[in-house]
Amino acid sequence: MRLRVLLATVVAMLMSLLMCLTPASATAAGARTAPDNPWLQRRVMNMAHSGGEDEAPMNTMYAFKRAVNLGADDIELDVQSTKDGHVVVIHNATVDQTTNGHGYVVDKTLGQIKQLDAAYWFVPGHSAQHGQPADAYTLRGARHGHPKVPGYQNKDFEIPTLKNVLHRFPNTPINIEIKGTSDSDVASYKRTARLLAQLLNKSGRTDVIVTSFNDEALGYFHSLAPKIPLAPGQNELLQYFLFGVKPMDGTVALQVPVTFSGIPVVTKSFVARAHADGYAVHVWFSGTAPDDAATYNAMLDSCVDGLMPAKPTLLESILDARGIERPGQPGVDPCAS
Length: 337
Prior knowledge:
Layout: H1 2-19, H2 22-30, E1 45-49, H3 61-70, E2 74-81, E3 87-89, H4 110-114, E4 122-123, E5 127-128, H5 162-168, E6 174-178, H6 186-203, E7 208-211, H7 215-224, H8 234-243, E8 253-257, E9 259-260, E10 263-264, H9 268-276, E11 280-284, H10 293-301, E12 306-308, H11 312-322
Parallel strand pairs: 1-2, 1-12, 2-6, 6-7, 8-11, 11-12
Antiparallel strand pairs: 2-3, 4-5, 9-10
């Protein structure tokens, strides 16, 4: 923990220094010709984070269907792998936070995973939250039909397989983050990366972006599925942000937090530099800034290409109210000069 605090302090100091240099860097980068990247044309995207975890049980088919129905342009999700080699959609290494089960995903078969209620701890407005009164869990039991939710099936409240999500949304771009059992267990990340590569190669889908905080796992995935677009891991993002070192081949987007260690990451100058280098910029909020109207508007005014909201309904209302351009739809460019 002390090492992480020290690292964060050092990075914060470097970022503070870089803030003085970024405008010049962006100007220099702007002179270069950006390579052809279709993700630069897919803007401005509502990329429902985990399907919109403040509005629906995270990483469930219910959340994904709901988000797409309200207008989301992209689904953001996380994947782990089961004991019997299936890629399933869940954020944590264990099932404890979101379901009525206990234990590691990797220790369970797909059959065991599918029995769990992935809406068990969902509290509207707060994602998964334990310790609340029973009546706070409005979708608890929907996995088994009590309560029934009009327009949805019982299985929409289970932990889905990625294969089923890809099948259900053949025309919706999907952002996939490779997870593992812990930061130090690189082998678990690489196992999921291998299974994911096999699945995506077989599916033929290229309208996806794969990312991971673990750079080694992402590099391994790329070696197995070189045609799949990428967003770089944490170390490569830092290298690019601080020193302009371009990330690995296959990178189409930089997916960044609003802030890091209190230092702003998403600024107009940073986005301009990324665009000049041929990368789209997608911003996530989890723990780095509030999921609220003020933050969403600030990110739009920073010229990002996609936002990953926990509240996709709120973002959708802002995009509509401002008449912002969307993928395949004309509208206002928030950064038109």
